[in-house]
């Protein structure tokens, strides 16, 4: 949160004439004009780190627990070439949760294209409109999400792999969610770092839980100090106007925080500086569901220090 500056107003000096000349003609009775009200100075709100962090975390939990949040994730099915039958019956290649039709239809993969033929009589929607079958998009945006009752499913691409991700608003993980423990908010974990831009944005290999590696674009390196020691983190970024995304690990991963590391966002560099607020370090989706495809911290982002800030481990993850 940026702090607004106080506005200052100058005082107007009113000159008083020593003598008033008599009017040459009778003055007309004009209504007195009101003096425009002067704008009051804007008061800057003091930055309250704890209040700001708590507000941010409440919003983060609201997203996590929403009907299509990560807690609703109940399945991920990789498609083979050819036909993949879909439904809740065990004889399907893609088995949906109990309560959905035993045989919903067939997903057919031909190279990089997937189509769905729906069983007659079933009512699916896509982007709120009736869907009776056809090619599936893989943007993972709302326009490509198919719905059947409380179920939502859509196509995802991970390299050469194509899969169906399934979410259910009635998922037990969502219904039984009990909050995420966090470390106390502390100004000691809000640090300013020096940004060292790369000569050209470079591709950084980032591993993921699938065992594959994805090339992501990094604009440079953040150099900062914690407890008297200098550390470095390499963020990734979709574009120069987007926030910096940092996938990092630290020594708390062994016992207190999620074992596969945590995520952190930071504003783009300003005047060569980046603020890292580890109070906003949060667990990746894989901490809540085995069906997420999370990136893992690259070797250069594994800090040899305990970052006792942000979210702690959730449940037995």
Explain this structure to me?
With 317 residues, the chain is mainly β. The protein has helices at residues 49-64, 172-175, and strands at residues 73-78, 82-87, 94-95, 105-110, 113-118, 124-126, 129-131, 133-135, 146-148, 151-158, 161-168, 190-207, 213-226, 229-233, 244-248, 262-266, 273-277. It folds into two domains: 70-175, Tumour Suppressor Smad4; 178-301, no CATH class. A six-stranded antiparallel beta sheet has the order 1-11-10-9-6-7, with no helix packed on it. The protein has a five-stranded mixed beta sheet with strand order 3-2-4-5-8, with no helix packed on it. A four-stranded antiparallel beta sheet has the order 14-13-12-17, with no helix packed on it. Strand 12 and strand 13 (213-226) form a beta hairpin.
| Radius of gyration, whole Å | 29 Å
Q: What is the count of structural domains?
A: 2
Helix content: under 10%
Q: Tally the beta strands.
A: 17
Question: How do the helices and strands follow one another from N- to C-terminus?
Answer: HEEEEEEEEEEEHEEEEEE
Kindly, what is the distance between the CA atoms of the first and last residues, rounded to a whole number of angstroms?
A: 32 Å
Which structural class best describes the helix and strand composition?
mainly beta
Enumerate how many helices there are, as a single number: 2
Beta fraction: 25-35%
Largest sheet: 6 strands, antiparallel
How would you state the average pLDDT, rounded? 87
Low-confidence stretches: 1-34
Strands of the widest sheet, in order across it, are 1-11-10-9-6-7
Shape: elongated
